Structures are given as C-alpha cells and as structure tokens.
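Retro notes
What went well: the complex prediction finally ran end to end.
Inputs used:
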Amino acid sequence: MTQPPPPIASLNLDELATPPLSLAKMAWLRFRRHKMALVGMVILAFLVLYCIGGALIYSEKYANFNETSIHLQPPSLAHPFGTDTIGRDILARTIYGGQISLMIGLTAVLLELTIGIVVGALSGYFGGWLDNLLMRFTEAILIIPQIFLLLVMAKFFAGDIPDISFLGREFSGSVVVIVVIIGLTSWPYLARIVRAEFLSIKENEFILAARAIGTPTSEIIFLHILPNSIAPIVVSATLGIANAITLEAYISFLGLGVRPPTATWGNMLEGAYNYIESAYWMWLFPGLLILLIVLAINFIGDGLRDALDPRSRTV
Amino acid sequence: METHKLIEVKDLETQFHTPEGIVYAVNGISFFVHEGETLAVVGESGCGKSVTMLSFLRLIPTPPGEIVSGQALYREKDLLRISEDEMEHIRGKEIAMIFQDPMTSLNPVLTIGRQITEPLHTHLGLNKAEARDRAIKLLLDVGIPDAARRLNDYPHQFSGGMRQRVMIAMALACAPSLLIADEPTTALDVTIQAQIIELVAHIRQHMNMAVIWITHDLGVVAGMADRVMVMYAGFVVEEAHVEELYDNPRHPYTHALLSALPRVDRRRDSRLKSIPGAPPNLLVKPHGCPFAPRCEHTIERCGNENPPLQKVAPEHFAACWVDVRTGAPK
C-alpha cells in the first residue's frame, strides 16, 4: 500500500452525534411495548427465583425425605403445599422439581437447536441431493406423532439407568434420557424453519459479496447467514422450552419419564389422578406451576416474535 | 506499458439450466487483462457481462449454472481447474470484486468492522488488533472520516456512497492484483458516481492494480479504461483500445451504442437515438449473428453464420460480416 489518497468527501459530523440504535436495542424497545410479554418475563423471573431461591430454604434431602405417617396431609403451616402419598413435602419437591423441569426444558432445546440448525443449514445452503436426503428424513420423523415416538423411545431406553451426579447433585439418569428423546424428536420443525431462512438469505447479494472476498463456506453459513436468521430461531427456541417442559410432564405423567425420587413437575402429577377429589393439593401446585411457566414462556415468545420481526422497523 | 498478461480467459462457455430450457449466457468468449490495465466491459443488461466474471471466479450457483468449457489462466493457473480451497485463497486476496448495489452487498447484521477485517483474518492471518488498525487505514484511504468510530457501525447507518466506499475498502483489503467492478456506480447518483470513479482510478494508480470495469455507461469508459470489450448476447462483438473504439467503431452494435449517447453538442430538443428491438432471447441457441435482427447493415450471410472475432486493425477486433464504414460485405 502506498500513502492514502486525500478523502474525496467528508461526512457531516453532526450525523454521528446521535447514538446509533443497535438491532438488540430496537428489539428491546418493541418488546417493551408488548404488555403480556412483560408479564411473562415477570412470571418467569419469579419462577426461576422460586426454584433457585427455594433451594436455600429447603435441602434436597428434605424434599426426598419420606415419612409415611404424615402422608396425604392437606396444606398446613408445616407443609404449606401439603404432603404426597408417601409423606414428602410438596413445596420442597416443587422447588427441586422446578429446577429439573427448567433444566430439561433448556437442555432439550439446546439439543433441538443443534440438530435443527445443522440439518436446516446444510440442507438450505447446499441444496441438491443433500437437501433432498435431509428433508426426506426430516419429513419421515415429522409424520410419526411426536408423543408416540417419545413413548416408544422412553420405553426403549428404560433399562437400568444409573444415577448421575451433576453440579454436586445426584439425580436419576432418566433425566438425561428424557432430554435426549425430547431433543431428538423436536428438531424437525426447527430444521424446516432454518432451511427456509437459509434458502432465502443465501440469495442475497451480500452473500455473493462475502464469497467474492474469499470467505470460507463455514463462515458464510455460521457467521453470515445464521445471524440473519436468528429471529425465527430465537422465537422457536423460546417456545421449544415450554414445549419440552410440557412433553416431560406428559411422559412423566404416564410413568415413563423421570423416575422418583428425582422430582419434576411432571412426575409429581404421576399418580395424582387417583386423588383428584380427595387430595387436590397433590395436583394443584405442580399443575399450576406448569401452567404458569408454559403461559409465561409463550407470552415471551409472542413478544419476541413481534420484537424481532425484521419487517417492522418502527420503534 | 507492462504487457504481461495477468489473466487470460479462453473460450469460456456458461449455461444455466432452467425449467424453461437452457439459457446460453456466455458463448465461448476469450479476453485477457494485462497487469495494471483497465479493461471496460460494456453491453446491455443481460448480455453476459456479470456472468462472465462470476464464472471465472467460480461464483455462479451450480446448479442451475454450469461452466461448460473454457479456461481462465490467472498467472498460469487455470481457475476453472483448481480446488475450491485454492479458489478461496484467490478470491479476495488476488482477485476481488465489488458489486452493483451497495445497499444489498453488505451484511445488515454485522458491523462494518467485522466485515472489513474478515478478509484480513482469512487471507493475511492478522490478529484482531492488527486487522483493526489496517481496517481503519483502509477506511481512511477510501475517504471515510472518523474511521475508528465507524468500525462499530452497522451498514444501515451509512449512505449509499459511503457503503460503496466500504465495499471498495473490503475489496482492497488484501491489495489484490485484479479488481472486478460490476457496475459499481449504477445504483448511485451522478455526483457520487464521479467520486467513486475517481477513487478507484486513484487507488488503481497507487497500487498498480488491474481493473475490469463492467458498465453500461460509455461515458465512464472513455474516462478511465485502457481497452474496451463490447459484449452482446454472450459474445464479444468488438474489442479495441479506448480511443480506437470511439474513433473507429467497427461493429454495428458499438456504432449504435455510441450514437445512443446523449451529446452536449446536439440540439437540446432532438430525440435521443435508441437501438430498435430488444436483446435476443438467450433460451434459443444463437443461429447466425445474434445482432442481425436489430442491425442496419444485415446481409444474407448474417442470418446463417455467426461472424467470428476478426482483426480489423492493429489490436482491434470485431465480429461482423460487413464493413460498417461502407456497408459492403468484407
């Protein structure tokens, strides 16, 4: 390089005085106007606080401690949410169960995102026979009802599962099984969304321009196209968390999910249907928590959908 | 002048397979560019100018595109035969390209800084701080003030002219030997056009870089090109040094293009001349001279045989059966 040429034109510096709005800031301004999404955020924050803060008050040992002499007690001062069939404290169990449920939701979505993004990105970017192969496979998974697939897989993997310890806690290895099978059955919709995004974004001139300066294919996929399709991915990941929590509750309710003594909001409902009239507290509290978290996450998802919509440029 | 050939394209043929049939976009064209030379490529929209360039950079989507045959020798290396990995090292480092529409050529979700430093990381292996310093220098070189601060800005915070400057900075990042400019000023207004042209001309001189400048605008060509190549329907129809081409156009199409230019010395109320008809449908394999249906000098032979590119004067080639000066068959 040689010495710089003199600048041919200069910008009006006043133009730079206004701080630019980043995409994240614009999204937040729009999200803020979505009242229900804010309510959802508050509920979610409260629930997370409940699960984490509650653990400081009750130990896990206490949550798993059974004392059959006090079984099926209605809510009282000693046991605010009552006790279950073998005398465990339901309040303490909802706290630890909530941690597991949230963890299942997050990790299952992480797995779903990984598979969905990789499959969708490869399919959409490369097209041709690879696209055909991957999409036919995706459709093959889609035509099997997810619940059915989940139950079969849960049954299939339900051998002897060792307990695992993670973050200083011991819990049933069935948690991992549930995460894996939820992840393995949820990705097809996401893969199709990602593929559709890739198909349209890769036709943009800036992708051609990036290739023209020698950007490697992997960077084109993950650094150029993926950030452009982040909005629908974020929205569907958010809703995926709620979905994973519901699915876990579903299989656990049917007795094929996470095994006690590890509690989840879902497996606390297992067996509670025998006491629908006689011991309302057994299903009311975990059920209410599931309802609240799914509702909250769905509101947030809705808010994000509006906030991240690239077509709405108003603040 | 340096006479070493930097790139030489031979018999390049590119087709697109579409549901309507095969589009014959580029039909066996050959050309070369010397080191440090500026070649202008002119012709109407859809006559294969961009496809030619994208073909030898291997940037056309395949499928539907297909490079049927040809060679593109860049410093004795055939770009159409080397591996994709090698090609990635040539794109951006040795040969860079800037595009028509600066509004769509920058990734809207990445900062300018990220986009400019990208080729510096990929090709020169610079670390973060070095790449940043270099990027600031590049932005100053292309006339963007307050460059250090603007690195963190997103493309939507720049005007069209500024974005094209950013594109040029990106293209120049690794000091390529060849810059392909695909109508870089078409989307800009006239004053900005002049600035961008001046900028490229300036940089070209300083870096002794060869330029292929694709344009519709013969006015731009006169100002900056050394040689001109006129394309029509995927063929080269005329090629000559710029003065020679303007003084002595030997193909009816070039002739028509030149007479279609607005002139300051013409009466203001006179109508601009245009070329009757439209470029041919590229879905049909050309039979005879592709320009014949719109040509003033057609003879019988034109409908049956496509004229080859022939030498008509020293370093001046044209593809026509007729001598346009007399209207008589050659």
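What we learned: The first strand of chain B starts at residue 5 and ends at 18.
What to try next: split runs per interface for comparison.
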